[in-house]
Amino acid sequence: MLDTQTAVLALLVAFAIALVARILAPRSSPPTPPTYGPRWLPPFVRGALAAYRLGKDEDQFLLGLRRDYRTAVWLPWPLSQTIVLESEAIRRVYQAPEKTLSFLPIRREMQGSAFGASPSLWQNKALMHGQVFPVHARGMSKTNLTAPLQRFVAVVRSRIDDLAARVDTAPSGSVTIKPAEWIVETYFEASLAGMFGSNVRDAKGISRDELWTAFCQFDKAFPIMAGGVVPSWLLNHVPDVVVGKRAQDLLASMFEAWIQDGLEGLDEGVVRDMAEIPLQSNLGANEAGKLIIADFWALQANAPYIGVQLLVFLLQAPESLRDDLLAEIDASLALAGALSDGNEPLTFPHLASTLPLLGSAITETLRLGTSTFSIRNVEQPFVLPTTAGEKHDAVVIPANTRLICATRLHHLSEDVWGGNGTAASAWDGRRFADGGEAKGEERGWRSRRARHVYGFGGGISRCEGQHFATAELKAFTSLFLSTFELELVSPVNKPTFGELYEPIELAGVDKPGFRPRRIPGRVGMGAYQFTDAANADLELTVRRRRRSQA
Ligand code: HEM
Q1: How confident is the model at residue 25 (pLDDT cuts 50, 70, 90)?
Q2: Which domains does the chain have, with CATH numbers?
Q3: Residue nearest atom 9 of ligand 1, based on CA coordinates
Q4: Cβ(302) to ligand 1 under 6 A?
Q5: Contact 371 CB / ligand 1 (< 6 Å)
Q6: Nearest residue CA, atom 41 of ligand 1?
Q7: Nearest to 292, CA basis, from 178, 135, 462, 185
Q8: Residue 19: pLDDT band with limits 50, 70, 90
Q9: ipTM beyond cut 0.95
Q10: Binding residue ranges for heme
């Protein structure tokens, strides 16, 4: 029989062995994210189901993913990527360096798959990584975009003058315009002149309408060509792609002819620098033309549509916000002074320092008016923390796979944006405007939160055009609002309202708000664009602004 002392000793030894065994035991690595869809279906059916549901209703699909899978989920072929769903996990992705989660190989590949560059250009890693990307990044800095911004503002001023002349000669003193068309066209023309100069169409004799049509056709095909979901053997049979590639050819030949003409009208800048790279590598003017299709597309595919949304939200916002905004704009324009000797006073520093409330409204519009799938190649296994209450405290995304971030979910998160009596889904133009100290807010808290909006994407793939785009939006909106009194013709009681518009809540407004219905299927592509029917329906009454006598 064992005495008590021996028994205690045996227990202590057993405990010590168990402890050592536990310490020495190989740690199990976190599991990979779950796979989308019911277990009993084969993976490709689950993948196809995910693709179908994503295209049908992006928001509903994404919100369902977060409810069912929380941090991340693997979407099988044809999507073949992990989708990251939670805010903290997305932040970790954006913090990761190129060597862990890479983007440059994808950016290079897109030059071929979406913009039509030949393999001799896009597969040339030394040329792309050594010249194209760094030259582009340098060219897109604010200091190198001074002249493009001046040209942009000059075209905006002249289009506003033309509209004002129409208003002045109208017997009623007002005209009704289709704002979605007029605003998009204004941004299109002004930013084209800004970045490419005014003569880009001339060498090939392409009209404004032809260029606009080519852009729309190319842009429609872009998500299919760039998405990498449709296999290449099928791609050239998709009708939108056939039309889009024809438009791509037209754009390439227009840019080619212009480049051969010495880029008439553009003395310097990022577009000229980009065109020089293939020329100096003896790849020819057509290749150079294809390279700058990327700039042309990036310039036009987002900013005009944010411009329309911003105006639609502002014109439905509480009157007090609009009054404060007009006062801010008047002060900014007064400080800038008039155009003198062709010197444009609306410069980057001026626009950045004088329009904080407009800046807040723009950031808020980016929050609710975009959906971006920042994409990465996973170079090394990447661990993501999960949220409280999940079965495991981390998941690992395996190497040699792809992941995308669902920024739309972060933008709709009540945990991040809710509280303060304003729902995350509501548009609040003051959300990022400081001045809440009297309500106990920390100084600068609101403007600091603007960094957490991912309308321009994030991390190593963040939009290189963000400064130019923000300046465009500030310049256009302040000149437009300071010249005219604007009123949206309410579509609310039209029988087609439900079909053409979607509801949106606006902070401080009792009645339901609306915005034009977005194009379905254009998922994760940045700014929402609207259906043609909604664009054609939306109307705006424009009259001269009456300034109150001080
Ligand atoms: C409000 C307007 C704009 C929005 C919402 C926007 C949004 C975006 C987004 C979401 C991305 C991808 C980010 C990611 O994958 O993480 C992107 C990339 C890019 N954008 Fe913009 N953009 C805008 C305006 C512009 C303009 C005006 C230009 C050019 C002047 C431009 C040039 C680019 C370029 C060159 C890239 C690619 C950067 C890269 O591949 O690393 N963008 N933009």
Answers
A1: low
A2: 130-374+404-544 (1.10.630.10)
A3: 456
A4: yes
A5: no
A6: 461
A7: 135
A8: low
A9: yes
A10: 463
